[in-house]
Amino acid sequence: MKVLITGGLGYLGRNICYAMADEGIEAVVIDRLEDPCDYKLDGCVFHKGDFGDEAFIEKILDDNPDIEIVIHNAMVSAVAVSVVHPYDFYNQNVVKSMKFFHRLKQRGINKIVYASTASVYDSVRGFLVTERSPIKPRSPFARSKYIMEMILRDYCDAYSMKVLALRYFNPIGADNKCRKALPHKPGSNILERLVKILNYEERIFTIYGDDWDTRDGTCIRDFVHVTDLARANALAAINFDEAFKKASPSTNYIPLNIGSGLDVTVREFISAFENVTREKVPVMIGPRRKGDIAGSYAGLAAAKKLIGWEPQFRVEDAIIDVLNYYELL
Questions:
Q1: How do the domains of the chain map onto residue ranges?
Q2: Phi and psi for 162 in degrees, rounded to 5?
Q3: Cis before residue 65, ω within 30 degrees of 0?
Q4: Which fold has domain 2-178+224-259+298-312?
Q5: Burial code of 43-81, b = ≥16 C-beta within 10 A, e = fewer?
Q6: Dihedral sign, CA of 83, 143, 295, 230?
Q7: Could you tell me the pTM of the whole model?
Q8: Which residues lie across from 295 on neighbouring strands?
Q9: pLDDT digits over 45-89, tens only?
């Protein structure tokens, strides 16, 4: 099997590359980062370029006619940033992606694993969301991903494409094997922010609101280890055809939650970090951020049934793996 991975050298992408290598899946990887051809990983071939560059994509497909599945992970993905810079998010996540998928359709590639987001969901009582929970994206980022999901549903109906849309919750952590073959691009997630406090790069950690309707007033999140998330992509590729055979009712479009299945508040996460590091985190309370919701966490039954995936790591594992990666333990 050969897959094409877009955005393969970003925070999520490089871990997906590690997962592909672990499973023995041959991967063609594209990214806009500088000098990607200098990076080596067994089973992965890197190319510098933009998935929106039609000539570049045509050459990649010409050189690799045996690509079976495309994992589209090239995206811009910060909720707060999307509120002030919506154009960048709609251009990358919708306009360029729509044209990219049309190009794949023209080339006869009809198996897609699409990186979506759990922020498409509405708030629900009890915070547990399944793939059938109400949808209400509240930020340009979330709306851009859901718009693309709707477009892909239409592509599936019209062009006989098949799509597994992986709705990521809140990825944290680093490669659990502490590999450094690929460039590290720190994410903007809560754990990376706490590491900056530990390194004295920032002085204080801001909690965005402590008056949410949760057990301690701070937002509830589902923090999934990035290694688990990456393995979900590998299993989605391996079990792609089987997933659609198992789906009931029959469909060409399947959304799947990819999370830990655990609800953790921001205060609880900070406490877990303090327990691992034995360091006290200075905290201040800031205003709520536009686009945030009180919380959600993932129901995972569909992912387990259809692609044979379930998470293996805890929040504490993710914290330890990041600290090991940065050589702070």
A1: 2-178+224-259+298-312
A2: -125, 135
A3: no
A4: Rossmann fold (3.40.50)
A5: ebbbbebbbbeeeebeebbeeeeebbbbbbbbbbbebeb
A6: negative
A7: 0.95
A8: 220
A9: 999 999 999 999 999 999 999 999 999 998 877 777 788 788 989
